[in-house]
Specification:
The chain has 136 residues and is of the alpha+beta class. The protein has a single domain, classed as ph1033 like domains (ph1033 like fold), CATH 3.10.590. 29% of the residues lie in helices and 36% in strands. The chain has a 6-stranded mixed β-sheet with strand order 2-5-4-3-1-6, with helices on both faces. A hairpin with a 5-residue loop joins strand 3 and strand 4. It is globular, with a radius of gyration of 14 Å.
Length: 136
């Protein structure tokens, strides 16, 4: 199966990159958007993920990997909501800000720039690789 690429967002005050790294892995719970749920259901073990701090920081700060495909979200009050398990990967040496992403022509078609509020979104392999390179 082909590796897919994703971006997940979290406000640092809610679940910061540093906390994720300390935990090592986490169940990505609490997503209550139908489009994001579709993306969670499409995630497979081995898929690569960009970890984005939303809120005031607005930057990709690290990478992660999907280690467990969609399963019922135990934080949901109604059925149908799912979570995936993510394993922390590498921190970017330099966060890649939203401004830097907007300024990069190769990233002009990213979902992040078109549907900015979506908390789980697909990323093209070339976009993933470019952001990681910008973060070195």
């Amino acid at each position: 199966m082909t590796t897919q690429y994703w971006l997940v967002k979290s406000e640092p005050e809610t679940y910061a990159w540093a906390t994720f790294v300390k935990d090592g892995k986490t169940a990505w719970t609490g997503v209550r958007n139908y489009a994001a749920r579709i993306h969670l259901n499409a995630m497979r073990p081995g898929d690569r993920v960009l970890y984005y701090h939303s809120g005031g920081e607005r930057a990709v700060v690290g990478t992660a990997e999907v280690t467990k495909a969609a399963f019922p979200d135990t934080t949901a009050d109604e059925p149908g909501w799912v979570a995936v398990e993510l394993k922390a990967g590498a921190a970017l040496a330099r966060p890649v800000t939203l401004a830097a992403i907007k300024a990069e022509p190769a990233l002009a078609k990213m979902t992040l720039l078109r549907i900015s509020r979506l908390s789980v979104q697909p990323v093209a392999r070339a976009e993933f690789e470019r952001i990681v390179k910008l973060g070195k």
